[in-house]
Amino acid sequence: MPSVAVKLYSVFFKFLLKHRLQNRIQTSSQHSDPFGVTTRPEESVAAANPSFADGVATKDIHIDPLTSLSIRIFLPESALTAPELHSKPKNRSNHEPQPRSARLDSIARRKSYGPPLLEERRSNSCGGGSSVEGLNLMTDGAYRGYSPPSGAKGERRRLPVVLQFHGGGWVSGGSDSAANDVFCRRITELCDVIVIAVGYRLAPENRYPAAFEDGVKVLNWLAKQANLAECSRSMGGGRSGGHGGGSGGGEFKKSDAHKHIVDSFGASVVEPWLAAHADPSRCVLLGASCGANIADYVARKAVEGGKLLDPVKVVAQVLMYPFFVGSVPTQSEIKLANSYFYDKAMCTLSWKLFLPEGEFSLDHPAANPLVPDRRPPLKLMPPTLTVVAEHDWMRDRAIAYSEELRKVNVDAPVLEYKDAVHEFATLDVLLKSPQAQVCAEDIAIWVKKYISLRGHEFSY
After folding, report:
1. What is the pLDDT of residue 80?
2. Sign of the CA dihedral 265, 271, 272, 276?
3. Residue 289 annotated in active site
4. Threshold 0.70, pTM exceeds
5. Measured CA distances, 195 to 58, 96, 187, 190, 418 (Å)
6. Which domain of life is it from (predicted)?
7. Would you call 422 a catalytic residue per the annotation?
8. Cα atoms found within 13 Å of the Cα of residue 52, Cβ hemisphere only
9. How does DSSP assign 192-226, residue by residue?
């Protein structure tokens, strides 16, 4: 059974949640807002930190001028290390740890996708050499982005991408919430990936299908970024000197630094963190609670889109205690209807706020993944890991969905955690629990099977 502290906090949590949901239901007709909101004033948020002081740098981007849709990028410091340096670190003669600044300065910078910083302009104008080697885009501890160095065989270190969708019952949470920030940092470090946390629009200001459409928009935006980055490389690839003389394997033309794609206002539309370090052909979708519903929807759209999303390829998805319901109650829905934190009554109120007025149904395609004639066929879905909690009233519905996937030969294991409650690995008060840490580690082990390069699937 959950601890006494968890039980007491659950009572307090449900009291506040019920009060907030009822207030929003009473005023929901006045809350229509096409632009929308992605976080609540009462939400505890964590500011973006572009430095690597804690091993992970973060950046917030507003990617849709017509809505409030935004993302937070989590970049691990390992992305700055060349393949050969990352896998085979050299021993230092004095046996002392190398300072981070010295370690980063030792990495060869090949070229930047954007204008050089002031320090680089000064070195070039003062005759300090025009070689692009040593181009440093770390200023005041903040990371700007650069093209990763090539290895001995010309390969570049590219990290897989995880699109993460937070929970919150459609009406709360955010990509910049303190709890989501901690969880995404944990996944970033354990999986050694770039995490893109999606700040989708919340209900009741934006009802179905707004949150689902936002998830698809981010996937399409990622594909557009990959293609723009490739165009930017082609435009800025001119170098003089060939492979002959000169230092650093050729000189860098100042004009090439400005050959990047810009919008009508002259701002670069290529996100340097993703252009430099992301491998969109190894994309994983991860959703918690209602975010798992969004992840499953985005996975279906990715299957339907096929090569239209190239070079993005969804190789797997992780559904953490998905917000699946249905009109015919399951055994867990009967036995655990008054479970901890998110009980059946609270979730029903959330669905009433999310689904369009007059269309409320527990068998809505957004709520029940096993309604008949839902496209595409399950056999085309990517490998799916499902995480469930013993004391979650929605657990049986998630397990049933996983069983249907396995019937059509989709790799769809279920990880069930004893004495766990809904959102046990992502809720703020439970993030430091041993179960939350173990769950993140288990997810990392499974995900690495699908994001590891060929021949290295079991090298972790």
Report:
1. 85
2. negative
3. yes
4. yes
5. 9, 32, 8, 11, 28
6. Eukaryota
7. yes
8. 20
9. T-EEEEEEPPPTTTS-TTHHHHHHHHHHHHHHHHH
The runs of H, that is alpha helices, within 89-133 are 100-105, 118-125
Give the three-class secondary structure for 417.
Answer: strand
**If you compute the radius of gyration of the chain from its CA atoms, what whole number of angstroms results?**
24
For tokens 């992301």, what's the residue? 278
Residue in 10, 131, 147, 289 annotated catalytic: 289
Identify which of 310, 315, 288 has the alpha carbon closest to the alpha carbon of residue 386: 288
CA–CA dist 274, 65 (Å, integer): 20
Could you tell me whether strands 414-417 and 384-389 are parallel, antiparallel, or unpaired per DSSP bridges? parallel
The pLDDT tens digits for 73-91 are 999 998 887 665 444 444 4
Asked if pLDDT for residue 105 goes beyond 50, the answer is: no
How far is the C-alpha of 306 from the C-alpha of 298, rounded, in Å?
12
CA 19, CA 173: separation in Å to the nearest integer?
Answer: 16
When pLDDT is averaged across residues 22-49 and rounded to a whole number, the result is 84
Task: State yes or no: is 343 an active-site residue.
Answer: no
CATH topology of domain 4-84+153-254+278-451: Rossmann fold (3.40.50)
Closest among 102, 107, 80 to 92, alpha carbons compared: 102
pLDDT at 319 over 60: yes
Q: How confident is the model at residue 9 (pLDDT cuts 50, 70, 90)?
A: confident
DSSP for 391-415 reads: T-TTHHHHHHHHHHHHHTT----EE
DSSP assigned state of 424: T
Quick one: pLDDT band at residue 67, thresholds 50, 70, 90? Answer: very high
Q: Is the peptide bond before 99 cis (omega within 30 degrees of 0)?
A: no
First to last CA, the chain: 33
| Residue 60 tokens, joined | 């917030």
Q: Which residue has the higher pLDDT, 102 or 209?
A: 209
Kindly name the residue from 166, 260, 364, 422 that is annotated as catalytic: 422
Q: What ranges do the domains of the chain cover? A: 4-84+153-254+278-451
Which position among 181, 279, 392, 396 bears the catalytic label?
A: 392
Q: What is the pLDDT of residue 140?
A: 73
Q: What is the pLDDT of residue 458?
A: 54
